[in-house]
Here is the input.
Amino acid sequence: MPKVKIPRKSTTIDMTAMCDVAFLLLSFFILATKQKPPEVLAVKTPSSVSSKAAPDKSILITLTKEGKVFLMLGDDTKKAAIIEDVNKTRNLQLTSEELARLKKAEYIGVPFNMLKSYLDASSEIPATTLPGIPVDTANNQLTDWIRSVTNVYAGEDQRKLQEMLLVKGDGEALYPLFKNIKSAFKANEIFKFRIVTEGESVPIGSELYKTGKNKEN
Here is the structure.
């Protein structure tokens, strides 16, 4: 008796579930990706072979080749407290509206006596036209900002604070200006901070290169 042949049918796959998963993953990566924080001004940093990553929420001090100093308070959970502390300790008498604007600002780049006019400006002032925070020996206002930072972080692990403090200076900036930034840290008993540099490969044959090779072997 002949066998009954079953007719062949084309196979169909329902891709609805797969598309749902793909879009869910895409949405997750878009929302979870950490964006690079905006830079105040473009500076050309010196190069080094260090490759240690900087913390996500860093306190960044930028020094331009013209000698202007800008401060970015990257940790939003502490930013408001630092601004309120400096307003109190320096007796700036900023209004609640001015404090709110300063807390939303991405960076600080004016002296204390210009803060009110800067915050009351009708439109955003470009960073290139700002004078920066004074750091000269007679009037180093960065010292006051760092003091408020240490006041807010008092009682916490100071090693974590030191890891968050970054200085990004242009390679053409004069050393006395960088020294004044160091003086602002030293005045607040902070003796360790990180310097942002442009990464480069380890020179072949150097001691650091040999050390890395020995670790690999």
Q: What stands out?
A: The first helix runs from residue 16 to 32. The CA atoms of residues 64 and 208 lie 30 Å apart.
